[in-house]
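Pilot study result, target chain (180 residues):
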Amino acid sequence: MGSLANAARSPAAVRFDERTLGGYFGSMSDDEAVLRIQLAYPKIYLACHKQHQNARTTPHGLSPRDASLLAHLDPGRPVEQAELGRHLGLAKSTLSEAMAWLVDCGYVVRAKAESGRGQAFLLSPKGVEAVSESSVLERNALLRLVAALGASRDAAIAGLERLATTAASLNGNAEPVPSA
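Predicted structure:
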């Protein structure tokens, strides 16, 4: 039970992109779960995506690389430079230069590395604001989306955060979803 192909043939079937977890009897197969994620993600991205800006037109003057670095940091958990460099495939010297600039600009603060070796970084309040404003997802579109979720908002966001955290851990990156 629960095959998308079989469900689509049933007389009471709804489009698979309108289906909710409550619409299934029993648990869905792994293939169904994968397909539903593949179908849902682009809809969120396209509905909330904003036009790309270059460093001269963003409110914070951030390049795409700088915005990406900030998006990989957290205001509550230090991220070690070595971990960040491995994840992004950046040489230590390249990352050091970029992080020094972000620290100097106030977007990032240095923190003690949990390993006791190397440097770690936290997203500053100014950095949290910059991440929000430089995200590929437009804030007002997300606010409309969050409002439209109504009572299911917290559960939906918790599910999204769980997917993101699990995806990060499967890629050898145990970084949590930013709590900002």
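One observation from the pilot: Residues 30-48 form the longest helix (19 residues). A full batch analysis is planned for the follow-on phase.
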